[in-house]
Amino acid sequence: MCSFRGIDIGTLRPIVFFYLIIGFLIFRASLTISAGRDVVDSLMAELQRPYHDTVKFELLLEIGDHFYFNDPETALDYFIEARELAEMNLEMPDGPFERKFTQQKAKAIRYIAYVYTNWGDYVTALEMYFLALNIGYEIGCSLNIYNSYNNIAIINHKRKDFNVAREYYERALEITESAGNDVGSVKLYNNLGVLYYDLGNEAVDIPEREIHYDTALVMFTRTLRLRQELGDRWGQALCYNNLGNLTRDASRIAGDGAAVVRGIGRAEEYYRRALEIAIEVNDMLTESKAQGNLSELFLMRYDLEGLPAAERSALAGSAVHYADEAYRLAEELNSLDQQHVAAMLARNAYARTGNTAMALHYADRYIELSERVFSEEKTASLNDMRVRYESEKKENEISLLSQENELARIRIENARMGRIFLIVIALSFLLLSALLLRLYYNRKRTSRLLEEKNRELAELNSTKDKFISILAHDLKNPFSAFLNITSALERGFDSIDEEERKEWIEQLQQSALQLNNLLKNMLEWALLKHDTAKTGVETLDLASVAGEAVAALYCFIGEHRSEVVNEIPADTRVRANRTYLCSLINNLVTNAVKFSGNGHPVTIRASSNGNRVMVTVEDRGLGIAPEDVTKLFRIDVDARAIGNPEGKGTGMGLIICRELVERMDGEIWAESEPGRGSRFIFTLPSGEVSLS
Q1: What is each CA distance from 281 to 70, 285, 429, in whole angstroms?
Q2: Which residues pair with 361 in a beta bridge?
Q3: CA 514 – CA 471 distance, rounded (Å)
Q4: How many CA atoms lie within 13 A of 657 on its CB side?
């Protein structure tokens, strides 16, 4: 085999290959980071849109989630903002989204706790997880309860309280399996696998250790398969890292050197796969762990017997590189736990290379970080003691001040009573003056309202008189026709031929229909004016309701040899009362058919304009003069005075149409030109629901 200056080229080949792989992964990471920025910018833009607060909450969490692995402090700011948004909405009494915002509040608390867990502040994190757990039980949210149990278990797991951790993991798993929550169950299988792996590491007896390792392997294998089925890349990186740890540590207890080498090789494959995916998904924490694990793996190879000096040197250099990267990423993440682990790995790697200064530097960092982990828990305990002490001290001070204040109160009591007496007299005078002034203004306002009501009553009486006059005139014609025809039939029934009798009976029927329509319109108008008909508004399909109204006029349209074309777009929705809307369209179509003339079609159209829908009923009749259009929809104008009086009724139909539209928060008007037909147009609120 070729060599250069004593260095084996075969030995350098995998090292060169390794650096090429690292370069490729760094290039991919830069692309991933760029894509991540695009995603965050897109989410920021969405956050400025007028969405409902429940949607804005999820956007805040998603933005924070993108910063979680690389910039946890920024992530924490977004998580806190999401919590404040949920709490602000919960302050509103009897809100329709109260349960939703309560769930979101608990979710935001958990996300905040994730950051504190990553920082090693387990006291704050546990307080928040228990708070979220209580909220979950209050509203009966199994998803929130499972997540809280899982995270409480993780913290106890980190503190090596394995029995408590297993208890909470199993509680959480029971909830996810009963609810069919596969994603949650996968997380718990992974966490239980890590727990059994740690139990194996703690076991002194090798058979016991192997039992725990076997259980962990089952859990990790199941987790990896399920995460691959779910397409969960982040979760796959965790699984590969865990499988690498398990394979590496299992090889330590292997019986022969060949088994150790094989185990190290499989572990390296797992770590490199974890590192590749972690860089791909921009998970800096898993990337740091994988780098640290590779450093430890190279040191295991370094310690194998029979290796050439050049290969040992290369392995030690690789171990240093990976350890430095692991520590740098952990420091950038401000992850106390991972810095603690990476510092020890870097100390060991530099010790192998003979770099005593750097080994001592990382040893000092390890000791310092160990003290910080200890001191944070101790500080929490001391803070509790200090709070209790300050509280007791404050109570004693308050008691002493109360005694001094009592003496001072007795001294000034007499003087104060005199001042109070004068103040009471002054306030009584002011109160009496204010009361008299209020009575005066109330009386004046009542008088003004009474004048307005009298004026409205006078207008209503005038309108009623005009209406009665119109009705009396319109009722006279059908009743006169009834009287004349029945008198003629009575006097000469036998002398009248069959054809003439049929003609008179048809006239009687027309008079009866005219009376029936007139009375029906009068009753409908009276019900509307006296408010006995309630407006039950709902979201309706306009095209469907128009179809029903036209179908009810089938015979009438056929008699006039006309056609009604419904051009309303499908799925046009309005907020209206179904009965009112049917009656409105029925009246407008009836008028249009009646005045269009035989053979001319009537068209119904609709268009949406923001939050309003405009409906048009168009005919091809003679049209109406501009000066007569303004007289429509008015009860004080005789309809027979508009245009050609032939065939016209009382005009009650259009008056009822106006009442119906106004009841449904709409408007109605007419557009017409002589000789070009007429368009009767009304608007209604749109039935489309907006998130804002």
Answers
A1: 11, 11, 77
A2: none
A3: 12
A4: 24
Phi/psi at 189 (5° precision): -60, -45
622-631: string of b/e by CB count within 10 Å (b at 16+)?
bbbeeebbeb
Q: Own/partner pairs for 586-589, CB < 8 Å, 24+ apart?
A: 586/549, 586/552, 586/553, 587/653, 587/654, 587/656, 587/657, 588/617, 588/657, 588/680, 588/682, 589/549, 589/550, 589/553, 589/564, 589/617
Token representation of residue 8: 């084996």
The C-alpha atoms of residue 614 and residue 290 are separated, in whole angstroms, by 64
**Residue 538 covered by a domain:** yes
β-sheet bridge partners, residue 7: 4
| Integer angstrom CA distances of residue 459 from 198, 454, 462, 525, 653 | 90, 9, 5, 17, 22
Tens-place pLDDT, residues 338-395: 999 999 999 999 998 889 999 899 988 888 888 776 555 544 543 443 344 334 435 4
Q: What one-letter code names the amino acid at 408? A: A
Phi, psi of 564 (to 5 degrees): -115, 120
Q: Which amino acid is at 435?
A: L
**The total number of structural domains that make up the chain:** 2
Helix H or strand E segment including 8: strand 7-8
Examine the fold and report which residue of 251, 282, 313 is the final residue of a domain before the chain moves on: 282
Q: Is residue 604 part of a domain?
A: yes
Dihedral angle, C-alpha 129, 131, 135, 137, nearest 10 °: 70
Please state, as a whole number, how many other Cβ atoms lie within 10 Å of the Cβ of residue 393: 10
Segment 17-45, tens digit of pLDDT: 444 444 444 444 444 445 556 788 888 88
Classify residue 485: in a domain, yes or no: no
pTM: 0.45
Instruction: Decide if 46 is inside a domain.
Output: no
Q: What amino acid is encoded at 81 in this protein?
A: E
pLDDT digits (tens, 9 = 90+) for 165-199: 999 999 999 999 998 888 899 999 999 999 999 99
State which residues form the domain around 658.
534-685
Residue where a domain terminates, one of 247, 266, 282: 282
Helix (H) or strand (E) holding 301: helix 284-302
- Asked if residue 489 has pLDDT above 90, the reply is no
Minimal CA–CA distance to 167: which of 179, 190, 150?
Answer: 150
Tell which phi-psi region holds residue 354, choosing left (phi > 0), alpha (psi between -120 and 50) or beta: left
**Pairing state of beta strands 678-685 and 667-672?**
antiparallel
For residue 573, what is the domain's CATH number?
3.30.565.10
Which helix (H) or strand (E) is 653 found in, with range? helix 652-663
Output the furthest CA–CA distance in the chain (Å, rounded).
144
Please identify which residue in the block is written with the tokens 């022969």.
Answer: 256
Rounded Cα gap, residues 152 and 549, in angstroms: 63
Pairing of strands 601-609, 563-566: parallel
- Asked if 544 and 514 touch (Cβ cutoff 8 Å), the reply is no
Q: Which tokens in the block code for residue 161? A: 């309280």
| Residue 55 to residue 44: CA distance in whole angstroms | 13
The residue whose two tokens read 């995998």 is 14
Mutual angle of helices 98-118 and 53-68, in 10-degree steps: 10
